[in-house]
XPP2 aminopeptidase
Amino acid sequence: RAPSPRDDIRDCSAEPPYLPPTATDSTARLAALRGLLRARGALAYIVPSTDAHMSEYISARDARLGWLSGFTGSAGTAVVTQDKAALWTDSRYWTQAERELDCNWELQRTTSIESIGMWILQAVPVGGNVALDPFLFSIDTWNSYSRALHGSGRTLLPLEANLVDEAWGDQRPLPSSSEIYSLPAEFTGSSWQEKVAGIRQQMEQHSRRPTAVLLSGLEETAWLFNLRGDDIPYNPVFYSYTLLTNTTI
């Protein structure tokens, strides 16, 4: 093999391919995921870097993209088919991805859903199902994928079970059990009761008169109730959802 100008990034054009020690061997993990895909009758699987709360910074248990590919950046999306795997990320992480991915992966230097959709149209034949875990996608993102595939003969297939979690098995980290604590009143500005009353007032004044508000962002519940936790490293939040109605919480 001719000497590479850099030895800290992969060189998949070399014979044999060169991988730095920071790269992760994803062969067995991809094979496990592909077996689960075949069992579900799907031809592709989309794996985002977010958790079910759309968090950019996540716990080890939710690092599905990192476990599958080895890529540990905070933003990225992967698509895996039976014979291909591709990762999309932004320019902050291009060099990092070249250090962490093995040669099973194509690196796409963009994050646009249009680019992901075009790749899927080329990789998945007409009539194929594109599976995903719907809890890991916002409504806007789901709609963007739907538009990208609209009229193509490919169908988004929401699955109740997360296939990466199934492939990960009992090696997946356990849920956090960190303590939730209250912030002193001098740091919060308002009590949680005052904040709840303020939201209910806005609900009454809104033109659509909503009767309930669902909070899924971890920082939203933490702010509302003046609570903090440590479920995600370096982020003072805890896993939660809040359903606030006119009369109940």
